[in-house]
Write a sequence for this structure.
């Protein structure tokens, strides 16, 4: 399961999430959704770099992003 | 995997009618989180003013009443006086609260009604097509100030939070912005504080949130974020202008 899950069907491509990601792991220009926008998507091959800081989710005006963090093995 | 960010339960999962980059969604989330935090979803009544925020009832899982343009604080006064145990808040824009609703909000604040006012200041009338509001910045072009706002004709932008902070009935008056994560965090604290103070019967609480309207600013969403920082915050300073410490003011 990816650390960042974006509801791409509802995304309006404002790019707030991509602009605040400190590692630039979110890109725009996914396949056009039903609203007519090219949504943001999380780069799956660079997932290891994500620190789950959740800044993208904080900034998303439509609250479409869920963020997960791996639990440390005790 | 542990979830570190999820949608607040009070915020209904649906597609909003807001334009890309509109901050109404963000402000809705802050209000929803404050309601969830206090655990008062079943005991909260919202009053939406006229503007893009009018569809509050579609997005928040609380009871919402509509008010005529600018009259949300008067309607909220009635609801709160009849149901003093409920948490009552109004959700208003600057075209609603600062122009036609100026009288209502000033007198409601002066009476110290125990309600919370969420004031979304995007310096323009959003829903009606981008006309000049009392909070429109000098020089800003709108459909009714095509050459830019000129103080000779239109006066100066009104700073609502400072103005209301001078009134004795006000328990909390703050201005915050939602343009970047650091400011968002302070905005969240301010909204939480306002709802908490209402729950403690401390009096009138007011939070002004500087937000973007990319469509009526004729800007891209990212340029609108920069405008908040570069043009709005210098004129509308952020901060807490009044905060009552104790509830025993009477």
């Amino acid at each position: 399961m990816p650390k960042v899950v974006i509801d791409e069907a509802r995304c309006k491509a404002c790019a707030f999430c991509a602009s605040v990601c400190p590692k630039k792991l979110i890109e725009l220009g996914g396949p056009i959704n039903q609203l007519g926008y090219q949504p943001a998507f999380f780069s799956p091959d660079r997932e290891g770099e994500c620190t789950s800081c959740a800044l993208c989710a904080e900034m998303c005006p439509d609250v479409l992003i869920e963020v997960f963090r791996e639990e440390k093995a005790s | 995997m542990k979830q570190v960010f999820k949608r607040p339960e009070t915020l209904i999962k649906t597609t909003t009618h807001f334009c890309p980059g509109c901050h109404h969604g963000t402000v809705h989330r802050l209000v929803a989180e404050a309601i969830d935090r206090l655990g008062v979803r079943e005991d909260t009544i919202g009053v939406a003013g006229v503007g893009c925020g009018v569809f509050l009832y579609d997005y928040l899982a609380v009871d919402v009443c509509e008010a005529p343009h600018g009259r949300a604080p008067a309607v909220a006064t009635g609801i709160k006086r009849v149901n003093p145990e409920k948490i009552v808040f109004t959700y208003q824009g600057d075209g609603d609260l600062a122009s036609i609703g100026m009288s209502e909000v000033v007198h409601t604040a002066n009476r110290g009604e125990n309600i919370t006012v969420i004031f979304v200041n995007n310096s323009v009338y959003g829903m009606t097509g981008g006309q000049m509001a009392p909070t429109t910045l000098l020089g800003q072009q709108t459909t009714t100030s095509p050459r830019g706002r000129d103080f000779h004709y239109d006066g100066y932008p009104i700073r609502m939070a400072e103005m209301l902070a001078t009134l004795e009935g006000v328990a909390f008056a703050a201005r915050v912005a939602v343009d970047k994560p650091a400011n968002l965090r302070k905005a969240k604290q301010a909204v939480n504080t306002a709802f908490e103070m209402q729950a403690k019967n401390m009096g009138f609480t007011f939070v002004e949130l500087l937000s973007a309207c990319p469509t009526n600013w004729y800007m891209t969403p990212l340029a609108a974020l920069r405008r908040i920082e570069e043009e709005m915050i210098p004129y509308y300073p952020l901060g807490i202008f009044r905060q009552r410490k104790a509830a025993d003011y009477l």
